[in-house]
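Posting this for the archive.
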Amino acid sequence: MAEDKETRHGGHKNERKGGLSGSSFFTWFMVIALLGVWTSVAVVWFDLVDYEEVLGKLGVYDADGDGDFDVDDAKVLLEGTGGVAKRKTKAKGLKEKSASEPTVPPEEAELHIEPEEQAHLGTEPQNIEDEVKEQIQSLLHETIYTEHGEDLQQEEDGPAGEPQAEDDDFLTATDSDDRFETLEPETFHEETEDSYHVEETVSQDYNQDMEDIIYEQENPDSSEPVVDDERLHHDADDLAHQHYEEQVYEPSENEGIEISDSVVEDSNITSEEARVPPAEEQQETPEVNKKRDDAEQKEKVKKKKPKLLNKFDKTIKAELDAAEKLRKRGKTEEAVNAFKELVRKYPLSPRARYGKAQCEDDLAEKRRSNEVLRGAVETYQEVASLPDVPADLVKLSLKRRSDRQQFLGHMRGSLLTLQRLVQLFPNDTSLKNDLGVGYLLIGDNDSAKKVYEEVLNVTPDDGFAKVHYGFILKAQNRIAESIPYLKEGIESGDPGTDDGRFYFHLGDAMQRVGNKEAYKWYELGHRRGHFASVWQRSLYNVNGLKAQPWWTPKETGYTELVKSLERNWKLIRDEGLAVMDRAKGLFLPEDENLREKGDWSQFTLWQQGRKNENACKGAPKTCTLLEKFPETTGCRRGQIKYSVMHPGTHVWPHTGPTNCRLRMHLGLVIPREGCKIRCANETKTWEEGKVLIFDDSFEHEVWQDASSFRLIFIVDVWHPELTPQQRLSLPAI
């Protein structure tokens, strides 16, 4: 009986249990678990499953028009098989499961279905794929083309309902657009304070953000290290308006790329290396921080997923993804060929053609080729000209086209592209802001002013429009009126407003009306990394150069040049006076709005390292003398010129554009009293036959209160710490 009882409880007569012991069960459990782990590793390591193909095929279930299969699409699928209530329950379950398993790629996490759901799906009498496809077709019809409101119409409207870029609306670039105009040296300005130059502005950020979102949207599971091709590309953008064939300065590890002063867009133009101020210097008032946080929040809201795939492109999404992956990995030539083949196979595919344009853009940067870049510019136009192009893709293509046209110096062609964008998207104020910049770049301040007035009438708090409107008012010498626009624009924290130029002009305007808050804004500009210091406020800089207001000849290392100037000062003076006596008026008035009052004129012999042959005919001996000193005649960021200032003249406090030069003043005709120059917080006077040397990137100011004219000879030289490579390749100013 006892034996029967033991047997019923799972034992045997020999005292051994019939089931697995605890240790045996654990051993088998570990073996199975390890097999599972190693099987998973093998699948990933040996690439046994083509996830790209799987995810590409799932694109057919994309119901919300975002270009991929995600939780929202799963909701539609579940609704079709189990009703609204079950759809909500299961979608919630999917989200929770995805959140609890961070190591699972997003697409896979979203596709995990509970056993209950699998059983439910298995009981359906018909193939679920057919049912869902039918549902999606109707959903696509309702949702894809209503996403953009006034920008897109439903599919029945056909191509006419899509924003299109017509060939006739764009400027055909001429040969004269392909290079800088050769200006007469007399027309160059020492400091074009009130002119607008091209840098990389907010639209560049828009393109970069959109492209990053596109890639994340199309390849969310990509974990392979890739070459940051976009960053490389934007380094090229920083040298905008500087043709690829020209020699371009490549910065060292501790030195960034300079933004040419011919050019605009979102990287600040403050220096050749983006200066990040120390943490302790970045403390700001709670009000300013709050405004910046609000601006960041606004920017996040704007960065929604773009709709870049039309109905047809979704069917070839796997092929598009494969080509795009090559581009993101930096395999530019392979990517170009892949997209060319896609365009050949699918000539009406907007996304394939846009990918081709991007690859040509990348290839132009890689090869430093203007010709290839021109091809990219045309391909961007082709994208917008195709039928059935999603509005976001039209916008991206034309914005990038405009930007690349600016890079090539085709400012008027860029303007026409921007005008077309505003026609297509009349409610997009950011495009109107870009259009205003386009007008500024061709010197049409009046048209730019009208654009910004229109923007501010619709959106009075638009910070970007405010700073640019203030900039225009200041250029028109409406100093007091410009201050509130510049101040409120900067305070808004909107993208594109935290720019050294606007701090520069706000402080300058305040100084001119006697507002003591000027240096507060200079200080804030310094803390935010736009200025090297409160005194040194140049915007085109090489970091790490010795910085001090006044220099001695020995400190510069240019003692021979100084000795030659001082030995020959009478020869230089006499030739200058002879030019002054001529009736032709070769001395040209200073026209950069630097004078509060008075009469100040200049006669230029060298500008940006280029000799003015005609001017040197008036001072031949002086020019012959200077040709022995390449540190000045080769200084492409400076000038050599005579400067005459008449009694009653006051030059506002101002700074030069760059820290890459030093300025020598040789006294030629100096009245005994009344003439002085201040640099930073030290004031000096000139002497006839003697050289003063200062760094004009520091604030300086001049007074001429004598009873007769003052004549000096200005000689700019490279900063002595610049390397030969830098002197050869830094863009001219």
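The longest helix spans residues 71-100. The two ends are 109 Å apart (CA to CA).
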